[in-house]
């Protein structure tokens, strides 16, 4: 065929495909993006960290049959735990792979999730008020089904996780709920909270920590377990400990951790929207990861209703921290109705002895058996067995 003749459609298509492959190759070879990977090395001994995480990262990137250069920075480190950030320089086409959370569990050595963030997107604004509504209605009926909610909140990522798509948030928030036999409350809570937290433009994940069996309930211990298990999943900067039955009435009540522990449920409807006493720290509270560790978490010694929140209030004071609060007009909550539990008769005695145990009763003597951990779309579910010492 003479060269000026029109080429056959098949050849044309072939040339186009080759041109596209070459362009893709060029883009990947000669341009680069940066992605940060955050690793939490909980459970690894300090000497071991260096050796194990170097190979770990290589393994991760080898999935692509290539290695890429990275800069490693220690974000924070304590006796047993460090957070590293690796900034990896890579072709743009890898960004979506690094951001794909399905990649992470396949890293066999990882004790934690590795989250990728694309540094090419800008930081989210500090002021999110443009996105808020202020007072919001509390919906009690009809109670939605799981399927309902999963359909409505299809923007969630497994484990009840969301983060803004077009901007980066520096702080990660874990919402921890102590739970047993409050199925309806859980559905109403999720229905209310996911859109609420999304409007606040948070990078958050909801953990439901359920106590197995019917023995005495231990709210504080479940929250300690939530803290530990959450940090096995990812790095979090901020923890919100949340009763399942308290629904915030105003989305200006930000679910973040300020530089002092914050008592969030200041004005509850059934308490006539008044603070019952100044030291109260029950219901909903926000404590930074760093402070929670300093406080040695909650006491594990309060079985049955009451006392554990006042013990935490004492721990905060003992460590020269102070309780901060939003005004009554904003930190408003509705409590869903439930049968009132009988207060535990021993709570005052345990509370009185509290101070002697601050440094040996809490995160550092926590014992439990993890029965189940599941990343549902609406929340990360953690089922545990805990036993009251006889
Ligand atoms: N809780 C639960 N099941 C129970 C008892 C308590 O899930 O059988 C959890 C739930 O998150 C609840 C919180 O512990 O909101 C506090 O318990 P409750 O609501 O009974 O306390 P009160 O409202 O009387 O302070
Ligand atoms: Mn309640």
From TrEMBL:
Membrane-crossing segments per the record: 12-30
**One Gene Ontology cellular component:** Golgi apparatus
Q: Which GO terms describe its biological process?
A: carbohydrate metabolic process; glycosphingolipid biosynthetic process
**Pathway involvement of the protein, from the record:** Protein modification; protein glycosylation
Q: Which CDD domains match?
A: b4GalT
Q: Note the topology in the membrane.
A: Single-pass type II membrane protein
Q: Which UniProt keywords apply?
A: Glycoprotein, Glycosyltransferase, Manganese, Membrane, Metal-binding, Signal-anchor, Transferase, Transmembrane, Transmembrane helix
Q: What class of enzyme is it?
A: transferase
Tell me which EC number(s) this protein carries: 2.4.1.-
Every copy of the Galactosyltransferase N-terminal domain together lies at 127-258
Molecular function in Gene Ontology:
galactosyltransferase activity; metal ion binding; N-acetyl-beta-glucosaminyl-derivative 4-beta-N-acetylgalactosaminyltransferase activity
Name its cellular compartments: Membrane
UniProt key word Transport: no
A Pfam entry, by short name: Glyco_transf_7C
This protein's record includes keyword Protease: no
Where is it mainly found? membrane
- Describe the location of the Galactosyltransferase C-terminal domain by residue ranges: 262-339
Which family is it part of? Belongs to the glycosyltransferase 7 family.
Its recorded name reads Beta-1,4-N-acetylgalactosaminyltransferase
């Amino acid at each position: 065929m003479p060269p000026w003749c029109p080429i056959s459609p098949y050849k044309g298509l072939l040339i186009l495909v080759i041109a596209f492959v070459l362009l893709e190759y060029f883009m990947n070879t000669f341009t680069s993006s940066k992605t940060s990977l955050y690793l939490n090395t909980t459970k690894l001994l300090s000497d071991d960290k260096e050796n194990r995480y170097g190979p770990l990262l290589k393994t991760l990137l080898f999935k692509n049959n290539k290695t890429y250069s990275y800069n490693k920075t220690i974000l924070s480190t304590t006796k047993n735990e460090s957070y590293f950030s690796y900034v990896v320089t890579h072709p743009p086409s890898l960004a979506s792979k690094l951001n794909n959370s399905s990649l992470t569990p396949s890293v066999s050595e990882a004790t934690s999730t590795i989250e990728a963030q694309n540094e090419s997107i800008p930081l989210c604004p500090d002021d999110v008020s443009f996105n808020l509504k202020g007072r919001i209605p509390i919906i009690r009926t009809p109670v939605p089904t799981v399927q309902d909610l999963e359909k409505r909140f299809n923007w969630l990522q497994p484990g009840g996780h969301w983060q803004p798509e077009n901007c980066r948030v520096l702080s990660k928030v874990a919402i921890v709920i102590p739970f047993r036999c409050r199925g309806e409350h859980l559905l109403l809570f999720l229905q209310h909270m996911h859109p609420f937290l999304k409007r606040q433009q948070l990078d958050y994940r909801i953990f439901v920590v359920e106590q197995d069996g019917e023995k005495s309930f231990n709210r504080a211990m479940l929250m300690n377990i939530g803290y530990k298990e959450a940090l096995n999943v990812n790095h979090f900067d901020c923890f919100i400990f949340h009763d399942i039955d308290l629904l915030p009435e105003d989305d200006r009540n930000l679910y973040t951790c300020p530089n002092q522990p914050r008592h969030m449920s200041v004005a509850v409807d059934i308490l006539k929207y008044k603070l019952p006493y100044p030291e109260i720290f029950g219901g909903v509270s926000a404590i930074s990861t760093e402070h929670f560790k300093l406080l040695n978490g909650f006491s594990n010694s309060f079985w049955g209703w009451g006392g554990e929140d006042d013990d935490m209030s004492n721990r905060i004071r003992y460590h020269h921290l102070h309780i901060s609060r939003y005004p009554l007009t904003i930190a408003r909550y509705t409590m869903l109705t439930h049968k009132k539990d009988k207060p535990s008769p021993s709570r005052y005695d345990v509370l009185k002895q509290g101070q002697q145990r601050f440094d040996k009763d809490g995160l550092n003597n926590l014992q439990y058996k993890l029965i189940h951990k599941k990343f549902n779309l609406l929340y990360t579910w953690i089922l545990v067995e805990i036993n009251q010492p006889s």
